[in-house]
Amino acid sequence: MFTFSLSMSISPGPVNIAILSSSMNYGFKRTFAFISGATIGFTLLLAAVCFGLYQIIVIYPILLDIFTVLGTLLLVWIGWNIFRAKAEKISVKDNAQIPTFMQGALLQWLNPKAWIAAVAGTAIFSSEHSAYILLLFVLIYFVVCYLSLMVWGIVGEKLAVFLNQGNRAHIFNMLMGIVLIMISLQMCWGYFHP
Q1: Which residues in the chain show pLDDT less than 50?
Q2: How far is CA 63 from CA 53, 107, 120, 136, 138, in A?
Q3: pTM surpassing 0.90?
Q4: 3, 68, 159, 185: which one has the fewest Cβ atoms less than 10 Å from its Cβ?
């Protein structure tokens, strides 16, 4: 359970790239609410899948298709905004652009990687004692996810020191925007063409 949670949480994905970019532009402390929202949002998604939604998705698999397409569209839009972002010194008046707790939580519910992780993990760890096993899985995933997303936030803040020279930050934002768009499209393509 720990290995599955770590591999899914620490590997590059849409939320991780958004955290990296936000921490680079706004700092770890200002991004922490988004990290917390993303962690709690995913944990709620995982718990919902483990304790009920999984059975609905098995009966109506088109729901997962819909979430995948809507999530991909949202993530491409976010990637485009990161790509276009001007990397300048952040001032207090820019606080409205800092990702919020609620945005982090909602983003996980539209994140194809989050749905794939939740459904796959539920399928793998279901058993005849599944209520206890799945509860343990949700708790382990919460801790691992939080720590993994914090690592991405810390790395983003550390990168800001290097990128705060010339136009490096702008180039980095363009690169992160492209990476987010490509990861999102690749996950959607991989979902529909396994």
Answers
A1: 89-93
A2: 10, 17, 15, 26, 22
A3: no
A4: 3
